[in-house]
Specification:
mainly alpha
Length: 140
């Protein structure tokens, strides 16, 4: 049983990393900073996996798309704290693409497990803060 859980975890990590990498590559055409970002998805997902024990050791394994969204949300918060605006913009654009292209059509927000709900809320809060700050900066 433990082997099966490790296999499922590895599969979820790989799928989440692939989603991040694919959306980063889509963004690369519009943003030269995102070029050469292949393989960054795995690092972001593994960082989330290591730092939040409930994700790694919980009885429920998160959906890969929400694992990717949670990893991006965590990376965005960290880049904001570091003051790295360019990295933050690239990661935010990637989260928006993921939200539009993958999250919107693959999940039912009413049927999320506990860990999926936590990851969903984390990503949504990052997007809401961004949208609110853009509204405040907009001239009347």
């Amino acid at each position: 049983m433990r082997f099966l859980n490790k296999f499922r975890a590895a599969e979820a990590i790989a799928l989440a990393a692939e989603l991040i990498d694919r959306n980063l590559q889509l963004l690369a055409g519009a943003n030269p900073i995102a070029v050469g970002s292949k393989g960054k998805g795995a690092a972001l997902v593994m960082d989330l996996w290591r730092t939040i024990p409930k994700v790694a050791d919980g009885p429920e394994k998160p959906a890969p798309v929400l694992l990717a969204a949670g990893a991006l949300a965590k990376a965005i918060r960290e880049s904001e704290l570091d003051g790295d605006g360019q990295k933050c913009d690239v990661l935010h654009g990637t989260l928006q693409l993921l939200w539009i292209s993958d999250l919107g059509r693959s999940l039912d927000a009413r049927r999320l497990s506990g860990i999926d709900k936590r990851l969903f809320d984390s990503a949504l809060s990052v997007l809401r803060l961004s949208w609110l700050s853009k509204l405040e900066m907009r001239p009347d």
